[in-house]
Write a structure and sequence with these properties.
A: 2 strands, 2% strand, B: alpha+beta, six-stranded antiparallel sheet, 2 helices, elongated
């Protein structure tokens, strides 16, 4: 076990130290205000925008701010005195050529490593069958996808991913109230776990329990958010990627009205759970909700982490799905590589050399002989096709094979 | 599971050690300096006979491109923008023509030409002109009023007057070999990795 853990951590350290997505610097610059005593980051950034070197909004929910801020407070002796200057440095060249950058990246990604290892141990505890438990544990540690998503993109989504998995574990242990509370806490990092709440209600055994299963996540989320309620908070968080991308209109039905495909399918799933399934298996529905999101929205690569623990569980329960899921993972991961966004590809290597700025992005390179948007559409369509079949299999056998996870 | 462990190890090693080599091998030129900072309010207009001449000393061999920031206000200039490179003997050695239609306002433009062997330490000058453009279709270059050692700029001429400084440029050279580029990338990376400051707190 020790050797496995050391190897897994060593691989993560390599990626964490050498690959750099600029977002990690931006939101850690914002989180650095916690050690200066700033509680409400949303209003602070709006009021002080003129004087700040980086002028972006803080788009995450409050718990992300506090987690990253506390990490900086705890690790400040390691980070050293020049760290704040590095965070505030708006010059993209000198910030990547700083000799301390490897140390900074490692320390800033340390909370992700803790959450990542915690997910592995939750998976280990999820399965009653020891063989399956060990397989899930190993599969989480040794797959190229999660290492890439977490440590290359400095991915804060690992926190809500950990908490949604913990929530699922509570459901399995029949501690539904704790599952509801954990979902609310997860939403305090990122909003997406709220999507699971309507389905959690159906697990309640009485009307009273159903009420609390629906209300508790919202109350916890409200308790986390209320101290920050302000126009800057709404502007920064609610108008973020999740809401604008997931609820992106699909096809026009005339007179300015559109059908939002993802939302329509989500609603269909909800009514199916309510009217037909009655006692839905949470795992099946949660994974299906995420497959709907990835199928019908222009997703960020970081979002793929939301589904990663569930995919590992599915692969363990049904080994015949392992390679199809692996293939779907490759397709899903390759879609964002063809976005016209340097920071998704070439710029990740600026720590090695800023000379790479001269290289074209895959989008630009492909543009010379093929429409990159068409390529994205082809890949996304392939993913949707595969996701549909996986969804069908989960539904078809939902009550039997996939149930006893 | 052994296969998956092996696949993960190989993936990480490719990501961290092999891909940077592939990227380095793909570089056809390398920058010799960082573009000097400039005040965006200090600019010179180029149109009709009003051309701009810049003298500079090449810092490397195999000079192959010169990059600079050019404004094209309201994207009005749709005429040819001509870049002429002269050696110290005022002999035209390279010409590059681009269309104003491809010139985004304020964008960084690279004038790329076949490499000039033996360019190291030699003085060159280049002119930028847009003779087909009228006074309403000007393009503009930014100006700094002092020499810059890193980029090699010494003086510029405009409207028959010569001043110290010039437009902030980046010069590019063709690498001596692909392996030298890989070595350059990795030596820079290792030097920072092994830098004592990165091993301890400040």
């Amino acid at each position: 076990m020790k050797k496995i853990l050391v190897l897994a951590i060593a691989l993560r350290v390599l990626v964490a130290a050498f690959l750099f997505h600029p977002d990690i610097k931006t939101f850690n610059f914002q989180a650095s205000f916690l050690k200066k005593g700033v509680f409400n980051i949303y209003t602070y950034l709006t009021e002080n925008k003129k004087n700040l070197s980086l002028k972006d909004d803080f788009v995450y929910f409050p718990l992300t701010y506090f987690t990253l801020g506390v990490n900086q407070i705890v690790t400040s002796p390691i980070l050293g005195g020049n760290f704040d200057a590095w965070l505030g440095n708006a010059d993209s060249n000198s910030s990547v050529t700083d000799p301390n950058i490897f140390k900074y990246l490692l320390v800033l990604k340390l909370p992700y490593l803790i959450a990542d290892v915690a997910i592995a141990f939750l998976l280990l505890n999820y399965f009653d069958d020891k063989k399956k438990a060990k397989k899930a544990f190993m599969l989480w540690f040794f797959n190229p996808f999660t290492i890439y998503i977490i440590y290359v993109f400095g991915n804060v989504d690992v926190f809500p991913a950990l908490l949604t998995l913990a929530s699922l574990l509570f459901i399995k242990k029949d501690k539904l109230i704790w599952a509801a509370i954990t979902l609310g806490i997860a939403a305090g990092f990122k909003l997406y776990p709220i999507l699971f709440v309507p389905f959690l209600i159906f697990s309640g055994k009485s009307v009273k329990e159903k009420f609390w299963l629906g209300a508790l996540p919202l109350l916890v989320f409200a308790a986390i958010s209320i101290p920050f309620l302000s126009p800057p908070f709404f502007k920064s968080t609610l108008v973020s990627g999740l809401t604008t991308r997931i609820f992106n209109p699909g096809f026009n039905v005339g007179f300015g009205e559109s059908i939002i495909v993802g939302l329509a399918l989500y609603a269909a799933l909800f009514f199916y759970a309510w009217l037909i399934d009655k006692k839905p298996i949470q795992f099946n529905y949660w994974i299906l909700i995420l497959l709907i999101i990835f199928s019908f929205s222009h997703f960020h690569v970081a979002w793929l982490l939301w589904i990663a623990p569930f995919v590992v569980m599915l692969a363990v329960k049904k080994p015949s799905l392992s390679w199809p899921l692996f293939l779907l993972g490759i397709v899903a991961l390759s879609i964002p590589l063809f976005y016209q966004d340097r920071s998704m590809t070439i710029s990740l290597y600026r720590v090695y050399s800023t000379w790479f700025d001269l290289l074209p992005t895959p989008f630009t390179a492909i543009q010379k002989f093929f429409d990159p948007y068409n390529l994205q559409s082809i890949l996304h369509s392939l993913f949707v096709g595969g996701a549909l079949t996986v969804s069908y299999l989960i539904f078809k056998k939902g009550k039997s094979e996939y149930n006893r996870l | 599971m052994k296969k998956m462990i092996l696949l993960t190890i190989v993936s990480v090693l490719v990501l961290v050690f092999i891909l940077p080599v592939v990227l380095s091998l793909s570089l056809k030129m390398i920058p010799n300096n960082v573009q000097p900072g400039y005040n965006p309010d200090i600019r010179l207009s180029i149109y009709k006979a009003r051309d701009f001449t810049q003298k500079f000393v090449a810092k490397t061999d195999n000079l192959t491109a010169i990059g600079l920031s050019i404004r094209n206000p309201n994207l009005k200039n749709k005429s040819d923008v001509i870049f002429n490179l002269y050696d110290s003997g005022v002999t035209l050695v390279r010409t590059v023509t681009i269309s104003g239609m491809n010139l985004e306002d304020g964008s960084f433009i690279k004038f790329t030409f076949p490499p000039i062997t033996g360019s190291l330490g030699k003085e060159f000058s280049f002119t930028i002109s847009s003779p087909g453009a009228g006074p309403e279709e000007t393009i503009e270059v930014f100006i700094i009023n002092s020499k810059d050692i890193a980029s090699g700029i010494t003086e510029y001429s405009y409207l028959e007057e010569t001043h110290e400084g010039g437009t902030p440029i980046v010069t590019y050279s063709k690498p001596q070999s692909r392996m030298s580029t890989v070595a350059g990338v990795y030596s820079n990376w290792f030097s920072r990795l092994l830098h004592l400051r990165s091993q301890k707190s400040d």
